[in-house]
Design brief:
Length: 222
Amino acid sequence: MTEIVGFSGSTHRPSSTRTLVDTVVKAIHSADTATAQVFDVLDLGDSFGSARSRGDLSASAEALFSRVEKADVLVVGSPVYNASYSGLFKHFFDLMAPDALRYKLICLTATGGADRHALVLEQHMRPLFGFFGALSMPTSVFAARQDFRDGVLSSPAVVDRISRLARELKLFQPVERWPLDDMREFSTAEADDAPILPGAMAAALPAHRNSCARSSQTDGEI
Ligand SMILES: Cc1cc2nc3c(=O)[nH]c(=O)nc-3n(C[C@H](O)[C@H](O)[C@H](O)COP(=O)(O)O)c2cc1C
């Protein structure tokens, strides 16, 4: 059973960020193989904003943190605030240990007033999850105000991008559950050498290595 968790860093309801996260979670969810839960900053309750450490959180907020840490796939979303993610989105991840999200599959999403700041996904969000050693999907999804109508995502281009993300995620999903607990026991140096790629990617790797070897031989001849 794959566990999908969505987190929106917006404090508004209704919220276009929450709608986007919900839409992505629905797109990647397949009823027989996955459980899904989406929550936002308000669901974390009053203890969250002033928490300096995990010990300051209420039991219900701590349960949501631990749900995120145990998830197989995490869909994260933030409204753009002054050209970056919201402060409370970052605060959520500031309360996590640096290795809490290692090797977790992450779908990156954000919403903004217009397309002007769409690169917040690449310039701010992707580096944040890179710090955690998480595996962010190559396709990220940005939606602007004009991409929603009556609280529903209505842009065919954004919906297409979500389908691409959903297809892409399948490439990374394991035939069987990843042995993440085993992987966490490796030091960083050992993990670099470990065969961590599952399924289709692992199958593709020998072919890729062979083609690299062939091209370096060719380079030598030239
Ligand atoms: C404090 C604040 C700062 C904002 N800064 C930006 C910005 O820099 N660029 C942008 O495109 N939109 C900006 N916006 C607009 C929000 O990103 C946009 O309305 C977002 O979709 C709201 O998401 P929500 O409905 O989930 O709260 C800002 C909104 C607020 C409240």
